[in-house]
Records
---
Amino acid sequence: MLVAIVVAKCLLGYLLGSLSGSLLVGRLRGVDIRTQGSGNAGGTNALRVAGWRFALAVIVIDVGKGALAAAIGGLVPPSLPISLSTPQSQACLCAFAAVIGHCWPIFFGFRGGKGAGTAVGAVLVLAPWIAAAMFVLWLVVIACWRYVGLATVVAGIAFPLLVLAAGSSGYPQSGALLVFAFAVALLIVFTHRSNLSRMRQGTEPRIGRHSTSAS
């Protein structure tokens, strides 16, 4: 019964993740941003294609659903004698399911975004100070190189390193959070592989220059 609850939470997390902000807002405006710009259903492409108001609504939805999934995952602490029993373990599972849903949404033909915003929302609930550190690092990379994709990848890779650093400094962190952090880092690198390829080729757009690419 309790295992079924964990599975149900993960399914709910995936369904929440599948509510793509850019596609929901786009339907209200009669536009599918996957047919414009880079074709990615993420915040950066939303900004370039439809402007900052559209992008802000997208970011609020995408970050919010990650935070909601993590919160729901940790709501009911079960008593299972396995590693999945802790509230944070369930929160991490539910959150990662939401990130997967964002990248491959069942409601939109499995064509979604790249997962960063939803992951950030989850980290805001699971480890707020780590989310703050990741955001600062993201801003530093943007300021230095003006590549959104690079900044996102660097922040994603830093996630598990920050969790490890927190543990070594005495700040309590669970093994579940570390596993979640590594999983998110790998996923972010995978979903941004086209950005990395364009950077190697010298064709990746920088902030402040018009282009049809996006992170």
---
Amino acid sequence: MRPLARALAGHDVVVPTLPGWIGNPTDRPALDLVELGETLEPHLPGAIVANSMGCQIAVELAIRRPELVESLVLVGPTVDPHTRPLLRLGVRLLSDWPREPPSLWWIITRDYAAMGLRRFARTARFAYRHHIEQRLPLVAQPTLIVRGRRDAFVSQRWCEQGAALLPDGRLTVVPGAHAAHYSHPSAVAQEVEQHLRER
């Protein structure tokens, strides 16, 4: 998230590291999505910008603690219901990998290695079992969904459906793939700033 944070330098931006990821080691077992959201509460109130599984965490936090979350920006929200079952999801994830900058491969590999196989598997299970499509209608905050045009992991079809499920949602498409906030931070920052101005 740091490239996007730098592109949003005119704002008061915090880039927290969730427990269990590199830079924030913990002896606690892997946290579920609600518990991960609770670790963000000290940084709020404010808007939340999230990517991938982070979108699921942000949605749960927005539903549970609406007084803390002013608005949401969801970049490539998972899990795309059209990628189920698990085998299809894995194929889509592998298809997206070559579309991301090689520098991101190293960051992801390093972070997941630091998590350890057990924590990674349990966290991934929490994300896979979460049905964000059932939760989006409960989000009261203004929400922008951002999709990278070449995202092989999260489909255009799903992002359109996700925006329609939100009481106050809209979709925009930017250059890049699943991690558009990393590969094209200026384009995503421009959309974030417009969303904040409008809302």
---
Amino acid sequence: MQKTFIKNLALLLTLNLLIKPFWVFGIEREVQVVVGTESYGLYFALFNFSFLLNILLDFGITQFNNKNIAQNNHLITKHFSSILLLKLMLGVGFMVVTVGIGFVLGYNPHQMHLLLLMGVNQFFAFMIMYLRSNLAGLHLFKTDSLISVLDRSLMIIFCSILLWGGVLDGKMTIDMFVYTQTFSYLLTTGIILLIVIRKANFKRLKWNLPFFVLILKKSFPFAILVLLMTFYNRVDAVMLERMLPNGALESGIYAAAYRILDSANMFSFLFAGLLLPMFARMLRYKESVEQLVKLSFTILITPAIIVVTATLFYSNELMGALYQVHVAESAAVFRIIMGCFVATSLTYIFGTLLTANGNLFQLNIMAATGMAFNLTMNIILIPRFHATGAAVSSLVTQFGSALLQIYLVQRIFKFKVNKRLLTQLAFFIPFVIILGYLSKLYVDNWIVGSLGFMAASAAFAFGIRLLHIKSIFRILKYG
């Protein structure tokens, strides 16, 4: 199972390393520069608001389906036609509730127009996630890896034409940016739907009320978990935009800093998408998951520590290279918010294992506590410290949640304490921090310094066998 995991992780990360960074730093960054920090900040807040209600779009069905199909492949033929109809009905409900709450919050007509479009985009995005869960559940990881970058690839093409193709009389607007996403999601949904239909022997949509009730009942714990975790991951930008007089601007500053974290988290999220069906299948057949957990931990946490340390020392330079305005403010937020990358990486490993093991009650308790804590901290910190306060709230909440998940995994699975791994980390983390400080102090060119620091840190990780290149290559060769 580890061999399959490494092979497909390599393919998945390679494809996403080619596509996602260009989307984040080439397209999204350029759009923010062109439309302005305030306009993009409004988009970012509305996007996160539409994301908060995704429980109504998915209701935990995607995670439930991923685990269920991984353990029972034959159920895709039996369940797909009914679940697809249920997803369509949930989409209608989501749009009604989203627009209704938008009116209650006092969004103006233009904001409501953008919110409606982003609601449509969320519907397609979550439909794609559900359809991909069928591919992952069937262990069609290569197909899933290719599909994982299709929507962004299309967006890059369409946005590049609008930004640099000379087809517009004026500048690109935030509305155009949202429309390109809608069209790209629509095309991607159509393509993956055709693939899954063939695998599921789909003939027609099937109305089955008892089945709908059963699925919603089984997926309800997943839905609550998704809702709670979404709130404390996404509510920051919404609260910034609504609570402050210059909320759209502060949300834009937060978005500028959050962009790199969001990009980094994409890889952890894709990583978890591979882990969930593997953990689920291994647990069903009573196989030990300890080695896969250790392998996942070292592969994710090692680069996370390096990246977070690099951003700690080079935040001003990096923000200055990406943006022309509000650089100091974005850098201050960036230094704090990037610490979440380590915490979310831990969550994507240990939270995924707990999900696969069915420990949803415990996860929901932790997520509810995290949401309440995050909201409280935001209410206290945002009025005083603005975007920086939101970043502090997110960092504390994420680390608290990650540590609780590690504790719960240890209690349930009773893994042996890996003294060798702890010793390696005890050497590695101080070394990386000292090396980052020295590179900043003695290397004048920040690009050379940061790249040299990351390369030296990675070499040290291999040198102390925190990462073991021979074992990885052996798995790739003989898997």
---
Amino acid sequence: MNLRYLLLFSLFTTLMLVACGDDEGPVAELPVYDDTPYVLSYGSLPEPQLPTDNQLTEQKVLLGRMLFHETMLSKDDSQACASCHLQTDGFSDPNRFSVGVEGLPGHRQAMSVFNMAWHTNAFFWDGRSTLLRDQALKPIEDPLEMNETLENVITKLSDSKMYRDQFVRAYDSEEVTEEKMALALEQFMLSIVSNQSKYDRYLAGEEALTESEERGRILFQTEYNPFFPESSGADCAHCHGGKNFENDQYMNNGLDTDADFTDLGREMVTQNAADRAKFKVPSLRNVAITAPYMHDGRFQTLEQVVDHYNEGIRNSSTVDPTVENTRESGLFLTPQDKIDLINFLHTLTDEVMMNEPAYQSPF
């Protein structure tokens, strides 16, 4: 009887302990450092020169994605990087100038942040940040943008268990630092790839261009020829060439005369008068969804952009010779030529990137 009693008592005690354990809920798993490499898929684009001191991992890219969509980076917790770089708008801002947390507009149009891995000539319109990691933190402290201090951001993130855990997974330490934030944001932006447009499918032999798009493609790639206007092209590829449709240069594209310069552009960084009113040449991928256009967002439509190059070039001391050569005669584009050229530009829209879940908010 005593043995039976002891067995029953032991079983009862065990059941009670199990029941109590269930009431307390499952034991939370501790975060574990994970350096699994992130595999960057870039298709037919050339192999990018990724930073050797910031090799992509799945957890660092995820941390960067979290930070990119995190409103705690701003003074009043209302804005994130993604607020002015909208995925549905090619990671740009449909507003001419982004409005910061203080209700103040910026001075330049927000640039797109896709295919950053193929930009090798610094960042921002004037190239003031040599590395993408340097660019990543500047909007946080800009009084016209997030208007927050990095110290406050670190405090806010450090108070979040979710972020402390993710820093452990990414860096094997829950300590939040400026450097780790910058490197993670760099990694996420490097992971944003646009290479699945209709034009990419055309190059792969998977889809045909319409007659108008094909005429536009030929115009885009054909050089300007003042001696034979009937065979002259739009000469776009000089500045927007290669698979990423840019040239990693800073150029003055004839928007204003010297007397009308209001933004000195690259000169503010180099202190070289030869760089006056020169700006980074952007990629034309997704150009149909990244209006408004130019560094100051002065053009709302692609039609206005084409008209500028066809008949609106203005002379100045630093205008690029390639653009200046077309100023007197224009590009000889007919109304149909303009339609065809714009139809081709629409084939550069990457709807896959616009809807890619891996770039969306993780929250």
